[in-house]
């Protein structure tokens, strides 16, 4: 059992959890993830670790409410317990002195990007960060990213903050305007699949090596079930043990997109089921039953 | 004396049982068990015991059942076998002990497995555990070995057996399990209707009662390395991490939606209880026509789970003939009774999908049997221009598993074979690194529960020897 030391909601539908997990905190490097299960009937979901505190023995997770489990988790408070957390899983991100690195993060992907940016900066890289969110109130870790960046750009889809538009627009502009060739030695892109796909398509045209962090469906996370298989350069890889980082130019994006949607109908069913239960409870109480 | 026939196992009716996940085989009644036990002629030199990897005193426990002394029967069993209710259900006795029974030469062998299950179930019904060995023995061994720590990675049949035997000797044993539940393949692989999870939990509770600590959610190699375990004072480590890597055919279309590895399919259904979705959160998506590729026990399990999840039609696709099918005869018969169809001498060459990337069909080749291969079975050879297609909307790949490379890769200098299996001395489980022992599927590749248990038992003995030598 794992204690939630701290819980907050730094942005709309994005919750931050600081969880006591000393063994995991000691071993986690940027890019790695944990799998957690809330309770006896819960599913196992993979979440990338945003930060660790090895002294306090904690890990920090940012979790967006998108489905049954993440919404349920949003209702947890400091002092509550998560039944199971296992990790660190996956291969740590490759952190070296590459030179200049463009770090593009969309939505809650910023939380995955943040430890990578921090580590890249420590290695002496020049960091150009591009953050994107749907709207102003969906932005997390802006300051933390800014502090670790040499150049910093932020966009919102609706223009409520920063530049109106997408991270890909900023990237295109940078490429068009910059006299430096190549513009950067490496691009990191982490966020929703469509965003990573578009960024990879742009950088491929300009021959900018691009690493993406993939988030396919997983069950065990230790290479046992094969649910997370992705095609990279025509070869089947397991994201849990071979990734989650892959070369964005080699990923079969349509396959990944469709595999992510395989349980869509079931996911809705699960959500409806839990909503019904929640709604039913007060009624039952009012009727004096149970 | 009139000859007693081999007692039939009562089973749940096939038409009913495909609608539920309850046990298929219901177990002997007391009368049946005693009758069956009386069939044993109590050979002076029992050949059956030679077939048991965990060295159970087979005539001994059967004699006690015949005498209706059930407490003694289970004590004798547990002296060697820490998981009798599990073995009584999933051991392939017909190729282990029963094949060696002298009665098998002229007729039907004694139903050793069913009797083992009876004795273990009888004990569970009493709600009281029978201790395998006397208290004095335990006290004496505890003194010698108390406080000496041994670690076990993986809580499947090999790890559980090794841990239990070491704890019985008096060692301070901790099992580390990466999943949230203890039991490995017993929990995630074998379905409820063949091995109820309550039974697994009860037997694991027995192992805990021997003093074994179990830590779940710890992935050795990631959460803790083997070196850290040694640094923390563990004197020896047993690696029983199993054959967790699913194999695929490597043919086009294999990553289409609704094509599962058997591991994923069974883990969702068994460990995560997807058959109780949405009460349980983990879903499983299944269509009306399911093809299971492969013909081992795992394939039979996947096929029978599919029926219970509501598939209209389930077919086993296998490239050889029924004679070569590696599954237990009993499992094949149960599957057929339940309506599973066999498509034999058939090999898939590609999967076909729709615009949403869902599998809609498969293209296969007809095969014929050629010369025997290295396994002694006749090799299937494709018949030219025999391609044909049929419709399916769900596929489960059950063509085997390889040893999980995750842990071996993190141990520097550990010798592994070309399939990623840890190379061990078969008699002791010793690896190329002193203090590290291994057994079960991680060493041999996919095998049976009982073979893994045998390896765990042999390793426990070798670990005891190894630690004794350290002290000198």
What does this structure look like?
The complex is a heterodimer of chains A (290) and B (472). Chain A has 290 residues and is of the alpha/beta class. Helix content of chain A is 32%, strand content 30%. Chain A is built from nine helices and 17 strands. Chain A has a seven-stranded mixed sheet, with helices on both faces. Chain A has a five-stranded antiparallel sheet with strand order 5-6-2-1-7. In chain A, strands 4-3-8 form a three-stranded antiparallel sheet. In chain B, helix 3 packs antiparallel against helix 4 and helix 4 (70-80) packs across helix 7. Chain B starts with 13 loop residues before the first helix and ends with a helix. Chains A and B meet through helix 1, strand 8, strand 15, helix 8 and helix 9 of A and strand 5 and helix 13 of B.
Short description:
Chain A has 290 residues and is of the alpha/beta class.
Features:
heterodimer, A: 290 residues, alpha/beta, seven-stranded mixed sheet, five-stranded antiparallel sheet, disordered C terminus, B: 472 residues, five-stranded parallel sheet, 18 helices, 16 strands, 16% strand
Structural class of chain B: alpha/beta
Give the overall pLDDT of chain B as a whole number: 93
* DSSP summary, beta strand count of chain B: 16
Proportion of residues in extended strands of chain B: 15-25%
Q: Estimate what percentage of residues of chain A fall within beta strands.
A: 25-35%
- Largest sheet report of chain A: 7 strands, mixed
Q: Please provide the count of β strands of chain A.
A: 17
Give the count of helical stretches of chain B: 18
Overall geometry of chain A comes to globular
Indicate the percent of residues in helices of chain A.
25-40%
Helix fraction of chain B? 25-40%
State the assembly state of the protein chains: heterodimer
Q: Major sheet of chain A: order of its strands?
A: 12-11-10-9-13-14-17
Low-confidence stretches of chain B: none
Largest sheet of chain B: 5 strands, parallel
Shape of chain B: globular
Q: What is the distance, rounded to the nearest whole angstrom, between the alpha carbons of the first and last residues of chain A?
A: 29 Å
* Structural category of chain A: alpha/beta
């Amino acid at each position: 059992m794992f204690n939630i030391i701290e819980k907050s909601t730094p942005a709309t539908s994005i919750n931050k959890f600081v969880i006591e997990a000393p063994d995991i905190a000691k071993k986690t490097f940027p890019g790695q993830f944990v799998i957690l299960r809330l309770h006896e009937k819960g599913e196992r979901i993979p979440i990338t670790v945003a930060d660790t505190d090895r002294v306090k023995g904690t890990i920090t997770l940012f979790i967006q409410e998108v489905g049954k489990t993440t919404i349920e988790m949003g209702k947890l408070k400091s002092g509550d317990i998560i039944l199971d957390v296992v990790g660190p899983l996956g291969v740590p991100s490759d952190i070296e002195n590459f030179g200049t690195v463009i770090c593009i993060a969309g939505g809650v992907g910023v939380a995955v990007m943040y430890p990578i940016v921090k580590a890249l900066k420590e290695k002496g890289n020049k960091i150009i960060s591009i953050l994107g969110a749907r709207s102003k109130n969906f932005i997390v870790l802006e300051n933390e990213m800014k502090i670790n960046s040499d150049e910093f750009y932020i966009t919102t889809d609706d223009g409520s903050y920063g530049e109106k538009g997408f991270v890909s627009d900023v990237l295109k502009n940078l490429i068009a305007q910059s006299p430096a060739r190549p513009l950067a030695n490496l691009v990191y892109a982490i966020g929703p699949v469509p965003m990573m796909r578009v960024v990879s398509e742009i950088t491929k045209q300009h021959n900018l090596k691009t690493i993406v962090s993939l988030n396919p469906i997983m069950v065990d996370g230790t290479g046992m079930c094969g649910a997370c298989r992705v095609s990279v350069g025509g070869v089947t890889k397991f994201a849990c043990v071979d990734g989650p980082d892959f070369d964005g130019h080699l990923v079969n994006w349509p396959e990944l997109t469709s595999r992510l949607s395989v349980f869509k109908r079931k996911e809705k069913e699960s959500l409806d089921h839990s909503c019904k239960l929640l709604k039913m409870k007060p009624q039952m109480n009012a009727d004096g039953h149970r | 004396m009139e000859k007693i026939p081999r007692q039939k196992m009562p089973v749940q009716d096939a038409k009913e049982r495909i609608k539920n996940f309850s046990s298929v085989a219901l177990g002997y009644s007391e009368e049946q068990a005693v009758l069956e036990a009386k069939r044993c002629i109590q050979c002076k030199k029992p050949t059956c015991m030679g077939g048991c990897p965990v060295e159970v005193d087979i005539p001994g426990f059967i004699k006690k059942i015949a005498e209706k002394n059930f407490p003694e029967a289970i004590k004798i069993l547990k002296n060697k076998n820490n998981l009798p209710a599990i073995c009584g259900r999933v051991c392939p006795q017909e190729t282990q002990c029963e094949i060696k029974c002298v009665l098998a030469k002229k007729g039907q062998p004694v139903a050793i497995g069913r009797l083992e299950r009876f004795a273990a179930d009888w004990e569970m019904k009493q709600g009281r555990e029978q201790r395998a060995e006397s208290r004095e023995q335990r006290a004496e061994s505890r003194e010698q070995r108390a406080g000496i720590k041994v670690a076990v990675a993986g809580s499947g049949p090999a790890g559980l057996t090794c841990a239990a035997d070491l704890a019985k000797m008096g060692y301070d044993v901790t099992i580390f399990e990466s999943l949230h539940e203890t039991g490995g393949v017993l929990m995630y692989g074998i379905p409820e209707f063949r091995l109820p999870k309550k039974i697994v939990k009860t037997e694991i509770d027995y192992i805990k009662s021997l003093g074994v600590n179990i830590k779940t959610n710890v992935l050795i190699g990631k959460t803790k390395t083997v070196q850290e375990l040694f640094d923390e004072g563990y004197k020896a480590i047993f690696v029983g991490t199993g054959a967790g890597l699913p194999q695929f055919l490597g043919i086009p279309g294999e990553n289409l939606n609704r094509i599962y590895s058997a591991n994923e399919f069974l883990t969702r259904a068994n460990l995560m209880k997807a058959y109780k979705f949405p009460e349980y959160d983990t879903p499983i998506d299944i269509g009306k026509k399911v093809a299971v590729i492969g013909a081992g026990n795992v394939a039979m399990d996947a096929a029978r789970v599919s029926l219970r999840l509501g598939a209209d039609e389930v077919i086993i696709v296998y490239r050889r003939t029924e004679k070569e099918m590696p599954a237990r005869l009993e499992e094949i018969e149960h599957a057929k009774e339940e309506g599973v169809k066999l498509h034999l001498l058939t090999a898939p060459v590609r999967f076909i999908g729709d615009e949403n990337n869902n599998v809609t069909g498969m293209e296969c080749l007809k095969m014929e049997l050629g010369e025997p291969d290295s396994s002694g079975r006749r090799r299937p050879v494709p018949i030219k221009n025999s391609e044909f297609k049929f419709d399916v909307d769900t596929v489960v790949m059950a063509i085997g598993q390889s040893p999980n490379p995750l842990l071996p890769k993190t141990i520097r200098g550990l010798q592994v074979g070309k399939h990623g299996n840890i190379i061990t001395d078969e008699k002791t489980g010793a690896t190329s690194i002193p203090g590290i022992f291994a057994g079960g599927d991680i060493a041999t590749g996919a095998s049976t529960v009982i073979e893994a248990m045998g390896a765990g038992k042999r390793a426990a003995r070798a670990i005891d020897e190894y630690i004794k030598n350290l002290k000198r």
